[in-house]
Design the sequence.
């Protein structure tokens, strides 16, 4: 009878071990199920993020195309306002040329050209373009271009004697330097009278 007890004892011990193994199996299955759920969730998030990335990339490409078109239009049509302002000046010059052949119109043409010049200068000023003062000023290589030197007693050496072409600034940026003749010392002229050079 003892053997039967021992047998039963072994059976119940085996049964307890089997239950533990089953619990371990269930735990492993639960862990796998949880991992599968987490994996599925991560895959869904990855798909959403990829979709967002594709949309953001498409939006950025559209933005780049729009900016490129706006830049192209700005370059192509940026002077539209200036052109509209200059057209009346062209009209006035055409009218002046139309009256040029008539008798006694010399004074009228001169007056018309002076008015047209003032109109041009006014348009340039409205767009921020102003002439550089040069005559009588100290020579400034940043704003003036010396074409030649001239000995004179009327002006101090290193100063501008006369202006051959006006210079212009566009909002404080040099568009074109003034072409000028610069005074040199009078003594140099006595020593070498043919020293007027470019």
Sequence:
């Amino acid at each position: 009878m003892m053997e039967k007890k021992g047998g039963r004892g072994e059976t119940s011990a085996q049964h307890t071990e089997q239950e533990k193994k089953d619990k371990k199996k269930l735990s492993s299955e639960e862990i796998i199920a949880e991992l599968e759920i987490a994996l599925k969730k991560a895959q869904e998030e990855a798909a959403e993020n990829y979709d967002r990335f594709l949309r953001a990339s498409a939006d950025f490409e559209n933005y780049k195309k729009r900016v490129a078109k706006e830049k192209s239009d700005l370059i192509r049509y940026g002077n539209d306002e200036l052109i509209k302002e200059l057209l009346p000046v062209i009209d006035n010059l055409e009218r002046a040329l139309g009256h040029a052949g008539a008798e006694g119109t010399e004074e009228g043409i001169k007056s018309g050209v002076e008015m047209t010049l003032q109109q041009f200068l006014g348009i340039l000023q409205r767009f921020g373009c102003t002439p550089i003062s040069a005559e009588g000023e100290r020579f400034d290589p940043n704003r003036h271009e010396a074409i030649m030197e001239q000995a004179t007693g009327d002006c101090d050496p290193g100063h501008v004697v006369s202006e051959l072409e006006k210079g212009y600034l566009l909002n404080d940026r040099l568009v074109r330097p003034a072409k000028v003749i610069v005074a040199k010392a009078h003594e140099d002229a006595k020593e070498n009278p043919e020293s007027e050079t470019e």
In short: The first helix runs from residue 2 to 77. The two ends are 137 Å apart (CA to CA).
